[in-house]
Specification:
Length: about 325
Amino acid sequence: MKYKVMFFGTPEIAKIVLETLFNMHEVDLIAVVSQPDAHFDRKKNVVYSPVKQFCLDHNIKLFQPEKIKEIEEEIRILGPDIIITCAFGQFINQGIIDIPKYKIVNIHASLLPKLRGGAPIHYAILNGELKTGITLMHTIKKMDAGNILFQRSLEINDCTTTKSLTLELANLSALMIKEHFLELVKPNLVGIQQDENSVSFAYNIQKDQNIINFDQPAFFINRFVNAMYDKPIAIMQYNGVSIKVYQVKITNQKSCQKPGTIVIFKNQLKKLPTLVDSLRFIFLQTFPLIYLLHRSQLLGIFFALCFLVRFFRDFLLYYLPIFLRKLS
């Protein structure tokens, strides 16, 4: 027996789940809903989301409403047995929640009730969690507050980044949907209510939230840099210049310098977040690099360049001709 399924989602993590649904024999994928086009390349051409591109490549019916309520009647006419959502990005109104026979199942990238909201992957790393995971839950009007149906966890270590964890959770989501789909379409599936006393939130990361605060233990600075990779990328300030920090490593070097001090140790750039440990920068980026230098250093470089220019000028005009005459 095949079940009529609609899927709501937009980014890469959702595309991986959509691909799994598309290839399942039990699924009749009748339509997909995704966010409107919002990204453009340098030539101002529209860049399609991963979900939209997959739909175009496989001739799947696609809706892209500004507000999901706009297509409530179309969804009602299509009559899905179940709607599965993953990183969709819009609140779903009660009218649509009531349409599918087997409800709406949301794939949420945390172990609920922890980290409700739009950035659970970032905050699992930021908060120093040792594990996170995927929750399959029933959607209700309140954000991420529906009954928990199934959960599975993954470990987080000091090298885990938002980019790597997103891929792991995407693959886990697809696996869970494949394993539990026939259970999701059972009419007596109720799940477990969330403990409201254990709720925490993970609201979307804002543009000004990616600046590193060095007045904290190195463990959390390392987690911060990892959480900001690969979007929006952690930033540190030095001499009024913003420097992108892609990766750091905690070292055992001790120092009594003030937290946030930049030092050179064995030709390695380090910054001291605490009096106990320090960080070694693995990969930095700034434009242009010369702005990292102090004015006094720039002045020294300027005079050195002037000396070299004068030296080569004299060499070419006077010494080279004399040398060539002696050879001849």
